[in-house]
Amino acid sequence: MRLPLPRSLHMRIMAGMAVLQLCAVGLFSFYMLTQLMSNEVTNRQALGHKILALAGTSVESLIAQHNLPGLQQYMSRVAADEAISSVTVKDAQGGVLYRQTKNTQPQHLVTRLLQNGEKPEVAVELRSDGVPLGLMTVRLSSELLNQNIDALLYNVMYLVMILLAVDLVASALLIKYLVAPLGPLASMARDISMGNLDTIMPASESASEEMRHLSTAFVGSAKLMRKQIVALEETRALISQNELRLRNLVNNIHEVLLELDDLGNVAFLNKTWTELTGHTLESSLRQPFSTFLVQPAQQAQFSPGMLSQMGESALQLEVRASDGRSLWMQMNASPQYDDRGKFAGLISTLVDINENRQVQRLQQEYQERLYRQSITDPMTGVYNRRHFDDLLDNLLELNLAKGRQVALVIIDIDGFKFINDTYGHPVGDEVLKLIAKALTTGKHQGGAVARIAGDEFAVILQNVTDEQATNVAKQIHRNIGETVINLAVGQLQVQASLGVAVAPGHGKTRQDLMRAADVALYHAKKSGRNRVDTLSRDVGDAIMDIFSQGFELRNALAGGMIAPFLQPIIELSTGEVFAYEVLTRLKRGDEYVVAENFVTIAEDLGLIRDMDLFIIKQALNLTPKGVHLFLNISLNSFYAPEFSRQLRQVLLSPAAHGHAITIEFTERQTTHMSDDFLRFFDELRTAGCKIALDDFGVGYSTYGYLRQLRPEFIKIDGSFVQQLLGNQQDAKIVEQIKELSDIFEASSIAEHVENEETSKRLLEMGVKYGQGYYFGRPKHVLDCFGKKDVKLA
Fold this sequence. Notes:
This protein has 793 residues and is α+β, with helices and mostly antiparallel strands. The chain has four domains: 9-175, Beta-Lactamase, CATH 3.30.450.20; 253-359, 2-Layer Sandwich (Beta-Lactamase), CATH 3.30.450; 377-539, Alpha-Beta Plaits (2-Layer Sandwich); 556-785, Alpha-Beta Barrel (TIM Barrel). It has 27 helices and 26 strands. The strands form five sheets. An eight-stranded mixed β-barrel has the order 17-18-20-21-22-23-24-25, surrounded by five helices. It has a five-stranded antiparallel sheet with strand order 6-5-9-8-7. Strands 11-12-10-15-16 form a five-stranded mixed sheet, sandwiched between helices. The radius of gyration is 70 Å and the shape is rod-shaped. The two termini are 131 Å apart.
């Protein structure tokens, strides 16, 4: 059984010192007791030998005299000694002459333990003159020895206790003195163990040098420990915080975190893998990653032999989900190596790129669609005018450089305005689509098809002769002639006129070739329509007339022979001038020719845009600020992209500043309301302009058209106004147009007002403005503002 040890160092030292002192005193006592016992035994043996020496002579004499009674008597006296326990006298033959034994105490335990060779009996041989007489044996008594031993034990015990007590007291004081400085160190150690480092104090000056060194080292260690503990706590908190962030990041990241060993087996995955693929982490770990891939080529990349060669890369992988779906993921991998430089596997991320791939596909489709929209006509799907111009320029440059001809066929639908007016806009749109289909499905020797105007198409033919170009145009004409549209009642047979020009014979540039084809088309129309005409030297006087008029128009534009004329628009209720309509006049000799005589030629020859811009600039420069101008613009000009830009520049120029401007166009000219068309009018309004619809009532006056365009002014066609007083039907039409203007919040303007009665009747109907010879004929802009002041409304 193990004895419990004292808890304190002091008590342990005391216990150790006590055991050592006890052992030392015990050994000392044992030594003293042994010495005393040895002395006592020696004394007893000396006493026994002394007794034998004193009594032996007398006993020898009595035995020699054979005086047994005397022997008995003498030995009785000897045996009476208290030091003798028993006496025996034997003769030479061994016979007992005398024996007496007394009851005495047994030997003391100490005596038995420490006999040290003691013989309790003493014997002496009896002789007389050298003759053996017998043997005398004396056994000493143990009573006296026992008494002496007890006294000796008591004395030794007292001495031991005194020495032990003195020794213990001295040791306790010494130990207390030596151990006392350890108390503060023990307290500091206890405080440190409890985390209380603020109570650590250095040892007092009275402490020993060793204790001061130990205390100083302890205090320094405690301070260092306190810093390390603080740093450790901060590090632990930071590690815990980072670990929490990392755990949250790993668990909430939308990317798959993947680790592969050197054999390509999955070593780690986060839960995003399960969310994306449906495979559980338990079923995926330790599995070859290649088993989750769909494509064999990708599987081979993750075989053990190929994995180490992958390196850092971004791969797009097709991963099989648990339900059999294919998921596209992008892997960003980084190889890992152990401390010996041996390949240890890959660490990578897997990003779901299904949506990105779909977005890229949609973006690509969107870009392709935007590109198609940028180069094609939205209604018919063929090339638009902008792309047609670029394409024709490129094809001319490419083919003419190689000595090959390029032919241009322009197709114009006959009676298209009549189709729109009679059958409605949807039927007209269907005609355009069918014509485009007929042009694109035919074999035209690599021809490119474009819609270059409202009802006008063009086909470019490469590497053809004049005869081949004419034959292709005739085939196109036949195909169009076979186009039939079924109507609710009957059928509509589509017809077209075609003009053909060939480069380089008819021109080497796009402008020259277009102009030649337009002239050929014009000749086809003038010759009865529904036919093909190729520009040649024997086209006749009509073609020469067109050229001469075109030459005249170009010279008039260059020489400023085209002038703006103004006709007032009057507010009927006050008779004051509200605005002026700007009209175009061509000076021929001393007279000015009205626009109706040359505007068609200008449109056919592509001069209308330049003419419109010239008249607008002249009107803005020559009229005073504050004058409201109605500017006529041909819709043919709107189909040229550069015209929109040029017109905006004019309307935003300093010359236009201070003018109220209304853009006026004729309803008979309108075609399909495309987004570009409507966007252009929105841009005009943004620039501060208003819109007026001219000659309303003689075209296809649809409500949808008015709803889309939302003009600020509607000009009632003069053919109805002139018959207002004598024809009830015309009067009713004027009233309906006025009411229609009110519905669309537009102001009505009556044209061709030629007398006072008509002006009064219009005022009674609620028509707000009037224009005609009754209020004033068109005058040159300088005649209007050169000498007279004009009262403006």
